[in-house]
Amino acid sequence: MARKRRGRPVHGWLLLDKPAGMSSAAAVAKARRALDAEKAGHGGTLDPLATGLLPIAFGEATKTVAYVMDGPKTYRFTIRWGEERTTDDAEGEVTATSPVRPGRERIEAALPEFTGRILQVPPAYSAIKVDGQRAYDLAREEGAPELTARPIEIVSFRLLDASDLDHAVFEVTSGKGAYMRSLARDLARRLGTVGHVAALRRVAVGPFHENQAISLERLQALGHSAPAFEALHPIETVLDDIPALALSGEEADRLRRGQPIALIKRSDLARVERLQDGATVFATCAGRPVALARYQAGSLKPVRVLNL
User: Fold this and answer.
1) How confident is the model at residue 29 (pLDDT cuts 50, 70, 90)?
2) Domain shared by 150 and 40, yes or no
3) 84 and 199 in one domain?
4) Which residues contact 260 (CB under 8 A, 6 or more apart)?
5) Is residue 88 pLDDT above 70, yes or no?
6) Whether 137 and 77 share a structural domain
7) Fewer CB near the terminus (10 Å): N or C of the chain?
8) Structural domain tally of the chain?
9) Does residue 6 fall inside a structural domain?
10) For residue range 226-250, what is the model confidence (pLDDT) as tens digits?
11) Residue of 47, 88, 89, 186 with catalytic role
12) Active-site residue 17, yes or no?
């Protein structure tokens, strides 16, 4: 006998302002309980130390998480000069110190070297897998593992404030897989000193911005009321960059059943003339999401059906 799922069917994106000192998994669990939702997942992990935007997908929105995780992310963080730590943030133990405190001009001169397509070694305390084990588990049990540098993209790297000799505040927009802790570590070393992230906040993820976020305290206070559910954003919010294709009711039913649709009639040409072969398409019917599908050789095949 199948186990009954807990909670109600809730679909959409919630933009949570994650508080410091809480893991992303714990924040998702609390948000899920607040809405009494069946299913939830997040669109990109934030360290416990970090605050800010944590997009949470509920129900069928979990099928679109990749479109958020693959999008650009913007962070504001503070580097504490003069101390390098095991975790590359304020939670670790001090492993090296330096009396050098870089000035604004030296900092700004070095930033172009960390902009664009660069190689980055992830922090030892990260979720990267090494021989099937998480790096942070190996770091706790056996010491820092040797991690391989990976290509990442830093879209922009700006110095916001350097009025305090011991600290500097930055804003970075990056692509997928970039670690701000590694960026802080490597920049400090490039400047002839050491450093770590003392504070970190994510302010934007894909189409979402921090000014759209709700605090966990506010969400829990609202409980299962209508205003709590009004904080949800539609699933299609994260699919704005994907070509949309309107279907008839019969076509939508076929796609929902996992069956392909032939779009080769003369009457179909206007609908598909702008679609490239192999393109991912957001299929809708009467304005409602139906599926993520792939258009290829005149046929539309379902990839992820959205059961709404």
Assistant:
1) very high
2) no
3) yes
4) 254, 299, 300, 301, 302
5) yes
6) yes
7) N
8) 3
9) no
10) 888 889 999 999 998 888 898 999 9
11) 47
12) no
Residue 251 has which token pair? 């076509």
Stronger pLDDT, 200 or 287, i.e. the higher one:
200
Instruction: Report H helices in the chain.
Output: 24-35, 65-69, 104-110, 135-142, 180-190, 216-222, 226-230, 249-256, 269-272
Quote the longest CA-to-CA distance of the chain.
74
Does 98 lie in the same domain as 78?
Answer: yes
DSSP result, 133-184: EEHHHHHHHHS------EEEEEEEEEEEE--STTEEEEEEEE-TT--HHHHH
Phi, psi angle pair for 56, to nearest 5°:
-115, 125
Same domain, 67 and 94: no
Residue 122's domain is classified under what CATH number? 3.30.2350.10
Q: What is the CATH number of the domain that holds 258?
A: 2.30.130.60
Q: 3-class DSSP state for residue 249?
A: helix
Region 77-100: what's the mean pLDDT? 95
Residues 126 and 217 in one domain: no
Structural domain harbouring 225: 12-71+207-238
**Which amino acid appears at position 193 of this protein?**
T
Predicted pLDDT of residue 1: 44
Q: pTM for this structure?
A: 0.88
Residue 177: pLDDT over 60: yes
